[in-house]
Amino acid sequence: MANFAYLLGCEETRVAALIDPCFEPERLATRAKELGYRVEWVLNTHGHHDHINGNDRAVELTGAKVAAHSRAKFHVDQYLNHSDTLRVGEIAVEVLHTPGHARDSVCLLADGHLFTGDTLFVGECGRTDLSGSNPREMHHSLFKVLAAVPESAVVWPGHDYGSRPSSTMSDERRSNYVLEPRSLEEFVSFMVEP
Asked: Which domain holds residue 40?
């Protein structure tokens, strides 16, 4: 499914988080250990199976706690809400609730890096035709919530669906056709077009 999973580590404290460990939690846990990091958190951008199916194994391997949005319908040790800050060592991870693809979708802003899950891809955005999806909420998430993210933020999406694995908010605002200015009604129509 071309999923991306991430290891976010604080170089000062050697504390780390796994973001959406999905299909290869063993690989992530091994890499963290090789780099000398202690994994304390599993952070989920949303609760779709292809993003959380590695959680249990990741927890088993690392002893980490799971954190996700308060609307999550899977096992969570620490619920998160919009504008909460979770610390990974000295790294402040800001939670941006970005429903649209899923009710519990969040983007995680950490030290100039934005982990977008399935809210924003390189050159695209997440689907809004699934159960729990909502194009009106996606419009708000993309054009209101993410509007506050700095141009320089590096975008790390949940899937390798674009022309490259990462981007910046500046590049996405300039070239992502989904982010072209549209009214709410225009956006809703755009998202349901085949």
From this structure: 6-192
Give one DSSP letter per residue of the chain, joined into a string.
--B--EEEE-TTT-EEEEE--TT-HHHHHHHHHHTT-EEEEEE-S---HHHHTTHHHHHHHH-PEEEEETT--S--SEEE-TT-EEEETTEEEEEEE-TTSSTT-EEEEETTEEEEETTEETTEE--SSSTT--HHHHHHIIIIIGGGS-TTPEEEESB--SSSS-EEHHHHHHH-GGGS---HHHHHHHHH--
| Residue 102 included in any domain | yes
pLDDT in tens for each of the 194 residues of the chain?
799 999 999 999 999 999 999 999 999 999 999 999 999 999 999 999 999 999 999 999 999 999 999 999 999 999 999 999 999 999 999 999 999 999 999 999 999 999 999 999 999 999 999 999 999 999 999 999 999 999 999 999 999 999 999 999 999 999 999 999 999 999 999 998 86
Q: Domain count of the chain?
A: 1
Q: What is the CATH number of the domain that holds 163?
A: 3.60.15.10
Is 161 within the bounds of a domain?
yes
